[in-house]
Amino acid sequence: MRPQVISLACAMALATVSLYPGQVLAQASGSSAASPAFVTQQPANEWRAGLFIGEAVLNTAGEPVGDINDLVFDRAGRISTAVIGVGGFLGVGEKEVGVPFATLTFDVGKNGERVIVAALSREDLAAAPKFKATEETTFDRVKNKAVDLGSKARDEAVDLKDRALKKVDDMRTGETKQ
């Protein structure tokens, strides 16, 4: 029975290593042989998803056509879609367009920066259908709450201004009610 457990542990360790080629793995200290391995360092040939958010997307002529707003992962954990924000100014009036992630190309610029290229023109992206997310992120919830609070604050400010103007008018005409 014991040799089977050892064989199973060895097979699991080999499977784990083969699932993560090139990554630096470590096992939790004091853990059993069947515990998961942990990645201790980002491999040089891989990128963090957070670095893509906000990155400019250029067309093949090198002109900016939008920026990465989000990445969508499939059930296997692979990036399937890049959501590009196009048009607008500082996010106002911007439209989100989804493009297959595989259609983007990645290069390194003159100064070592990441260059993301989509073989799409501004016109292509402007004419593209709007991307519709089916999930709400924490950022979406916070942004929506901020918009709601901003609207309420604006409405309250307008109401206060109207009441103050009425009070000033009443004082000027001597019709102040006490």
Report on the structure:
With 178 residues, the chain is α+β, with helices and mostly antiparallel strands. It folds into 3 domains: 2-41, no CATH class; 49-127, SH3 type barrels (Roll), CATH 2.30.30.240; 136-178. The protein has 3 helices and 8 strands; from the N terminus they run H-E-E-E-E-E-E-E-E-H-H. Strands 6-5-4-3-8-7 form a 6-stranded mixed sheet. Residues 1-21 have low confidence and may be disordered.
Q: What's the quick description here?
A:
This protein has 178 residues and is an alpha+beta fold. It is built from three helices and eight strands, in the order H-E-E-E-E-E-E-E-E-H-H.
* Share of β-strand residues: 25-35%
| CATH level-1 class of the largest domain | Mainly Beta
Computed Rg: 27 Å
Number of domains: 3
What percent of the residues sit in helical stretches (DSSP H or I)?
25-40%
User: What's the assembly state of these chains?
Assistant: single chain
The termini sit apart by 94 Å
Total helical segments: 3
Helix/sheet category: alpha+beta
CATH topology of the largest domain: SH3 type barrels
Arithmetic mean pLDDT:
79
Order of helices and strands: HEEEEEEEEHH
Enumerate the strands of the largest sheet in spatial order, edge to edge or round the barrel: 6-5-4-3-8-7
Q: What is the tally of beta strands? A: 8
